[in-house]
Amino acid sequence: MVADTASTPRVRKITLRIRRQDAPGKPARWESFNIEVPPGSNVIACLQAIARHPKTSNGQTTAPVVFDSGCLEEVCGACTMQVNGKVRQSCSCLVDSVAPNDGDTITLEPMSKFPVVRDLLVDRQRLFHNLKRVKAWVPIDGTYDIGPGPKEDPAHQAVRYKLSECMSCGCCLEACPQFNVEENEEHWDRAFVGAHAISQARLFNEHATGKVLKGARLDVLMGQGGVNDCGNAQNCVKVCPKEIPLTESIAAIGRAVTVHAVKRYFMGAK
Ligand code: SF4
Ligand code: SF4
Ligand code: FES
């Protein structure tokens, strides 16, 4: 009987080359691991295989590789890293697509725009700080007694649904030439907010209740580090795993900021 090789699952031997760092500010080094992967494995499964047998390809016992993850289904945004030089989610990155042949190598590095905590785990605090800068929320504290808010318009809802899929993964920031490493927290409020924050400001400005903070959001976005710092390189939209129309959001907020600035000038608009 002839084996059906096309449909037989084939375990492959691959190498994972990983940039490691023991703690913030420590020097980085490279370690390689030879592992066997069944078809359909994702990059996280490879890291879990290393954790079970943390031995490098030259036989040295080492510490398991540290990384972040949560949902394992491209929803939480925690597992972002550079895979073969491209920023993406490691949970939805299939080995079959990035290392399809026996003997292939996958290179893993942490994102470069955020401080490394350890190995592939980075501190994304600044990303969340920038969401606070643009007041990316619907203000409902203390409104319970005044009853339901205004009804949502279905057309706006359809636009907002796509924007609401942002999972704060940081891919758009890693790819953006205007978003640079800024370890001094005192400078965060003057540096570029990033495409994710601009798009979330659009999301909440389009919300029937959320728009009460529209003026405050646009004030931030017309200031230093706001939408005018975007160089329109469009790298962000190319790497967003949720395919959020970031350049559309940047253009929409750019127009809103212009109108807001004119109104402010003539009428002192809030
Ligand atoms: S379009 Fe703007 S936000 Fe997007 S990558 Fe370019 S500079 Fe960054
Ligand atoms: S906009 Fe896209 S790439 Fe940027 S944080 Fe949100 S999901 Fe990630
Ligand atoms: S583990 Fe949640 S997005 Fe990858």
Could you give the topology of this structure?
Elements: E1 12-21, E2 28-37, H1 43-52, E3 80-83, E4 86-89, H2 95-98, E5 105-109, E6 116-118, E7 121-122, H3 125-133, H4 154-163, H5 171-175, H6 195-205, H7 214-221, H8 235-239, H9 246-267
Helix pairs in contact: 3-6, 4-6, 6-7, 6-9, 7-9
The chain binds iron/sulfur cluster (2 copies) and FE2/S2 (inorganic) cluster (FES).
FE2/S2 (inorganic) cluster binds at residues 69-72, 74-79, 89, 91.
Please provide a written account of the structure.
- The protein is an alpha+beta fold and 270 residues long.
- It has 2 domains: 12-122, Ubiquitin-like (UB roll); 125-267, Alpha-helical ferredoxin (Fumarate Reductase Iron-sulfur Protein, Chain B, domain 2, Orthogonal Bundle), CATH 1.10.1060.
- It has 9 helices and 7 strands, in the order E-E-H-E-E-H-E-E-E-H-H-H-H-H-H-H.
- The strands form 2 sheets. A 5-stranded mixed beta sheet has the order 2-1-5-3-4. A two-stranded antiparallel ribbon has the order 6-7.
- Strand 1 (12-21) and strand 2 (28-37) form a beta hairpin.
- The chain is elongated, with a radius of gyration of 22 Å.
- Mean pLDDT is 94; it is low at 1-5.
- The site of one iron/sulfur cluster has 15 residues, from helix 5 and helix 6.
